[in-house]
Amino acid sequence: MDFGTALVAIGAGIAVGMSAIGSGIGVGIVGAAGAGAISENPRRFGTALVFQAMPQTQAIYGLLIGILLLVGAGLLGGDTGKTISLSVGLAALGVGIAVGFAGFSGIGQGIAASAGVGATSEKPDMFGKGMVFSVLPETQAIYGLLIAILLMVGTGLLGGVSELLELTAGLAAVGAGIAVGFAGFSGIGQGIAASAGVGATSEKTDMFGKGMVFSVLPETQAIYGLLIAILLMVGTGLLGGISKLLELGVGVAAIGAGIAVGFAGFSAIGQGITAAGGIGAAAQTPATFGKSMVLSVMSETFAIFGLLMAILIMFGSGLF
After folding, report:
1. Fold of 3-317
2. Could you tell me if 192 and 256 are in contact, meaning their C-beta atoms sit under 8 angstroms apart?
3. How far apart (Å, rounded) are the C-alpha atoms in residues 118 and 36?
């Protein structure tokens, strides 16, 4: 087995293993809430099961990507004679990081869905609104899945492996995976805010809109990660079909850009905590909505720092 193929195997392992952690914790959180709900009303078992199924999707995405990676590398399907270059192997590593770490959004989805279980057990008409809040942290996982698929298409892991992929592009793929994967942790913050939104809406139905506004705030960190991932792919020719000859150091710099915006995405957890408090304050005193929004936006500045640094790195290294 060549080294490139071994990296593909590691990428597949990361895709499944990391996403399984996020989904497992999220499903467990909802399961605990569901157990409490059915102990009071056994007829709520079906509703609890629907909410508990929601955080499972992250692991399903990871499993799908893992299988596609193995098939693309010839590790699954009998094509053992296929040779995978180091650059493609690195890209596969980026694929696994993108969908695997974005799977930690399942924790946030579990937090939101558990609140949905509790609210629905008390007020059955809260089922629809609880589902809407619970779906929000799913977007981070979808961003990771999207980048993973685009990377596989760009490197030929879906439809025929490219032997001409530059090593710089492979390194940039790792940077893209880090950018969108770690920014996916913003789903935890979004889940915290969405959970508060479910509770406030259960008490006051007119809080649904305001709750949604607060719950959407931590989404921006994931969008920043998605944006940088796409720009890295475009800059190195992974998205657009034009292979670009760039120095190896540019690929390493691309990893730095991914780290900047990806890890800065953890600021969404703090933003989600503030947003949850803002929802509670606005539910109790509607006049505090504007001021609570200002407080909730403060944590956004750190994500902007990460986005700014990523852009400066790309400018300085010639990716722009």
Report:
1. Four Helix Bundle (Hemerythrin (Met), subunit A) (1.20.120)
2. no
3. 8
